[in-house]
Design brief:
Layout: E1 4-10, E2 14-21, E3 23-28, E4 31-35, E5 42-55, E6 58-71, E7 75-80, E8 83-84, H1 91-110, H2 119-139
Parallel strand pairs: 1-7
Antiparallel strand pairs: 1-2, 3-4, 3-5, 5-6, 6-7, 6-8
Helix pairs in contact: 1-2
The protein binds adenosine-5'-triphosphate.
Protein backbone atom coordinates (compact mmCIF):
# COMPACT_ATOMS: atom_id res chain seq x y z
CA UNK A 1 0.00 0.00 0.00
CA UNK A 2 1.25 3.48 -0.86
CA UNK A 3 2.36 5.72 2.01
CA UNK A 4 3.02 9.44 2.38
CA UNK A 5 5.79 11.14 4.35
CA UNK A 6 4.49 13.17 7.33
CA UNK A 7 6.70 15.77 9.01
CA UNK A 8 5.44 17.79 11.97
CA UNK A 9 7.56 20.68 13.27
CA UNK A 10 6.99 23.43 15.83
CA UNK A 11 8.95 26.65 16.44
CA UNK A 12 10.24 25.73 19.89
CA UNK A 13 10.78 21.96 19.51
CA UNK A 14 11.76 21.56 15.86
CA UNK A 15 10.92 18.11 14.46
CA UNK A 16 8.25 16.29 16.49
CA UNK A 17 7.26 13.56 14.04
CA UNK A 18 8.72 12.24 10.78
CA UNK A 19 7.42 8.95 9.35
CA UNK A 20 5.79 7.35 6.33
CA UNK A 21 2.07 7.05 7.10
CA UNK A 22 -1.05 5.65 5.43
CA UNK A 23 -3.42 8.55 6.09
CA UNK A 24 -3.77 11.72 8.14
CA UNK A 25 -7.03 13.24 9.41
CA UNK A 26 -6.81 16.90 10.40
CA UNK A 27 -9.15 19.73 11.35
CA UNK A 28 -8.54 22.68 9.05
CA UNK A 29 -10.22 26.07 9.34
CA UNK A 30 -12.49 24.83 6.49
CA UNK A 31 -13.41 21.57 8.26
CA UNK A 32 -12.11 18.03 8.65
CA UNK A 33 -9.78 16.70 5.93
CA UNK A 34 -8.46 13.21 5.25
CA UNK A 35 -5.14 13.18 3.38
CA UNK A 36 -4.07 10.05 1.50
CA UNK A 37 -0.89 9.38 -0.53
CA UNK A 38 -0.83 11.19 -3.89
CA UNK A 39 -3.13 13.94 -2.65
CA UNK A 40 -3.26 17.08 -4.80
CA UNK A 41 -1.10 20.04 -3.74
CA UNK A 42 -2.74 22.09 -1.02
CA UNK A 43 -1.87 24.67 1.64
CA UNK A 44 -4.33 25.05 4.51
CA UNK A 45 -4.59 26.55 7.98
CA UNK A 46 -5.19 24.15 10.89
CA UNK A 47 -7.26 24.63 14.04
CA UNK A 48 -6.04 23.31 17.38
CA UNK A 49 -7.12 19.64 17.40
CA UNK A 50 -6.16 16.01 17.93
CA UNK A 51 -4.60 14.95 14.62
CA UNK A 52 -5.25 11.29 13.69
CA UNK A 53 -2.44 9.40 11.95
CA UNK A 54 -3.12 5.97 10.43
CA UNK A 55 0.02 3.94 10.22
CA UNK A 56 0.41 0.19 9.61
CA UNK A 57 -3.12 -0.68 10.76
CA UNK A 58 -2.88 1.40 13.94
CA UNK A 59 -4.00 4.94 14.74
CA UNK A 60 -1.87 7.47 16.59
CA UNK A 61 -3.00 10.85 17.95
CA UNK A 62 -0.92 14.02 18.18
CA UNK A 63 -2.12 17.27 19.79
CA UNK A 64 -1.73 20.08 17.27
CA UNK A 65 -2.01 23.67 18.54
CA UNK A 66 -2.99 25.12 15.14
CA UNK A 67 -0.71 26.22 12.33
CA UNK A 68 -0.37 25.39 8.64
CA UNK A 69 -0.27 22.22 6.58
CA UNK A 70 1.47 21.97 3.21
CA UNK A 71 0.50 18.93 1.13
CA UNK A 72 2.17 17.58 -2.02
CA UNK A 73 1.48 14.13 -3.58
CA UNK A 74 4.54 12.71 -1.71
CA UNK A 75 4.71 14.71 1.51
CA UNK A 76 2.66 16.41 4.26
CA UNK A 77 4.43 19.12 6.25
CA UNK A 78 2.71 20.51 9.35
CA UNK A 79 4.15 23.78 10.67
CA UNK A 80 2.39 23.85 14.01
CA UNK A 81 2.08 26.49 16.73
CA UNK A 82 2.76 23.57 19.11
CA UNK A 83 2.57 19.78 18.85
CA UNK A 84 2.81 17.03 21.46
CA UNK A 85 2.92 13.25 21.34
CA UNK A 86 0.64 11.65 24.00
CA UNK A 87 3.58 10.62 26.21
CA UNK A 88 4.81 14.24 26.38
CA UNK A 89 1.51 15.78 27.50
CA UNK A 90 1.34 17.13 31.04
CA UNK A 91 -2.32 16.57 31.98
CA UNK A 92 -2.29 18.80 35.09
CA UNK A 93 -0.88 21.68 33.02
CA UNK A 94 -3.52 21.18 30.32
CA UNK A 95 -6.29 21.08 32.98
CA UNK A 96 -5.00 24.37 34.44
CA UNK A 97 -4.81 25.97 30.99
CA UNK A 98 -8.38 24.80 30.23
CA UNK A 99 -9.69 26.25 33.49
CA UNK A 100 -7.88 29.58 32.94
CA UNK A 101 -9.29 29.86 29.42
CA UNK A 102 -12.82 28.98 30.56
CA UNK A 103 -12.64 31.63 33.30
CA UNK A 104 -11.46 34.24 30.80
CA UNK A 105 -14.26 33.36 28.40
CA UNK A 106 -16.85 33.57 31.23
CA UNK A 107 -15.43 36.98 32.31
CA UNK A 108 -15.56 38.21 28.70
CA UNK A 109 -19.24 37.26 28.42
CA UNK A 110 -20.08 39.25 31.57
CA UNK A 111 -17.86 42.24 30.79
CA UNK A 112 -18.59 45.46 28.91
CA UNK A 113 -17.30 46.07 25.40
CA UNK A 114 -14.23 47.77 26.92
CA UNK A 115 -13.08 44.42 28.36
CA UNK A 116 -9.34 43.84 28.00
CA UNK A 117 -9.84 40.10 27.49
CA UNK A 118 -8.64 38.86 24.10
CA UNK A 119 -11.46 36.42 23.34
CA UNK A 120 -9.91 34.81 20.28
CA UNK A 121 -6.72 34.15 22.29
CA UNK A 122 -8.78 32.61 25.11
CA UNK A 123 -10.74 30.44 22.64
CA UNK A 124 -7.50 29.23 21.01
CA UNK A 125 -5.96 28.43 24.43
CA UNK A 126 -9.10 26.47 25.35
CA UNK A 127 -8.98 24.53 22.07
CA UNK A 128 -5.27 23.67 22.59
CA UNK A 129 -5.93 22.45 26.14
CA UNK A 130 -8.94 20.35 25.01
CA UNK A 131 -6.89 18.79 22.17
CA UNK A 132 -4.14 17.81 24.67
CA UNK A 133 -6.65 16.25 27.06
CA UNK A 134 -8.39 14.41 24.24
CA UNK A 135 -5.10 12.94 22.98
CA UNK A 136 -4.16 11.87 26.51
CA UNK A 137 -7.61 10.46 27.38
CA UNK A 138 -7.78 8.45 24.17
CA UNK A 139 -4.68 6.67 25.40
CA UNK A 140 -6.02 5.92 28.88
P1 LIG B 1 0.16 26.93 28.88
O1 LIG B 1 -0.73 28.08 29.27
O2 LIG B 1 0.07 25.78 29.83
O3 LIG B 1 1.59 27.36 28.56
P2 LIG B 1 -0.42 27.01 26.07
O4 LIG B 1 -1.49 26.34 25.27
O5 LIG B 1 -0.49 28.49 26.12
O6 LIG B 1 -0.45 26.34 27.52
P3 LIG B 1 1.56 26.77 24.07
O7 LIG B 1 1.91 28.19 23.81
O8 LIG B 1 0.63 26.11 23.08
O9 LIG B 1 1.01 26.58 25.55
O10 LIG B 1 2.89 25.87 24.12
C1 LIG B 1 4.12 26.36 24.62
C2 LIG B 1 5.04 25.14 24.76
O11 LIG B 1 4.60 24.35 25.88
C3 LIG B 1 5.02 24.20 23.56
O12 LIG B 1 6.31 23.64 23.42
C4 LIG B 1 4.02 23.13 23.94
O13 LIG B 1 4.32 21.91 23.28
C5 LIG B 1 4.25 23.04 25.44
N1 LIG B 1 3.05 22.67 26.20
C6 LIG B 1 1.98 23.43 26.46
N2 LIG B 1 1.08 22.79 27.23
C7 LIG B 1 1.59 21.55 27.43
C8 LIG B 1 1.14 20.38 28.13
N3 LIG B 1 -0.04 20.36 28.78
N4 LIG B 1 1.94 19.31 28.14
C9 LIG B 1 3.13 19.31 27.51
N5 LIG B 1 3.62 20.36 26.82
C10 LIG B 1 2.86 21.47 26.78
Amino acid sequence: MATIQLDIVSPDKGEIFSKDVDMVIVRSTAGELGILPRHAKMLTELQPHAMRIKIGGTEQLIAIGGGFMDVTPEKITVLSHSAELPENIDVARAERAKQRAEERIAQYKQATKDSLIDISRANAALARAKARLLVKNALA
